[in-house]
Specification:
- This protein is about 40% helix and about 20% strand.
- It is an alpha/beta fold.
Length: about 300
Amino acid sequence: MRIQNILALTDFSTPAEHGLDRAATLAATHGARLRVLYVCETPPLQLADPAARLEQRARQLARRHGVPVTAVIGTGRPLDDCLAEAERADLLVAHGRMHRPWPVPPWRTLLYPLLRRCPCPVLVACRPPQGPYARVLVAVDFSAASRPLVRYAGDFETGAALELFHAIDTHDEARLRSAEASTAAVQAYRREVLQYAQERLYRLSNVFDARRNRVGTLIGRGDLARQLTVQQESADADLVVLGQEHRSWPMELLRGSVPRRLLAGGLESDLLVVPHAYLGVVPGGAQPARPAGRLTA
């Protein structure tokens, strides 16, 4: 993985300034070029010339971080501008305040469509940068995307400690209980699933030929978004990394969006969402066989 071009979004708010600083820091780390794009659906009245201010901000970032920075003037259609510019980027950096809580519906925001449709990884900066990321929590589901996702996370911040996290789906266990399986059968199934998760996590923790990252493993049970929030606080991670398939809006509405739920729930770290297609994983890729619930007494 090599990051050569970073696109950062700003509306000149304080949270957006934190996002620009994080983007410039990453550009310096990876030797990348930085482009800054002004996007604001309701421009503040006191901002007479956004283009001039954007050019000034680009020069300030270039001097402070020692990276080439270019100001990008959009067409005034925020989502279209972001998606068009993201086609030439290896990373898009947005700020966490771009999402608006209920009662504003998700389709009226800019961030959620970006997370669903952006062709490159999206980093949502939720807090002021305080140096390089130190602890990175990577959510893995053991699909074909898990291994390249772990590699990507390790290369994203090579000095960080990685924690690979898997949330065990409890639906099969619930079906066992509803089928009136014995307590012994349910406990045996739970041990089998736990062993499976431990083995898969161990294999994923060995993807690095050179041990540039310290790699640990964590296992939770139940809802992924809720478990990630708990583990992020417990591990004091400053970055959470997720893989995501591109889905239509109706499908996302039906199945739910983990990134959207994390942000709406007040995630206390930055969030990096990596499209499966960017990792070279085709939709519906093969997954390893999982333990099946035994409906026996």
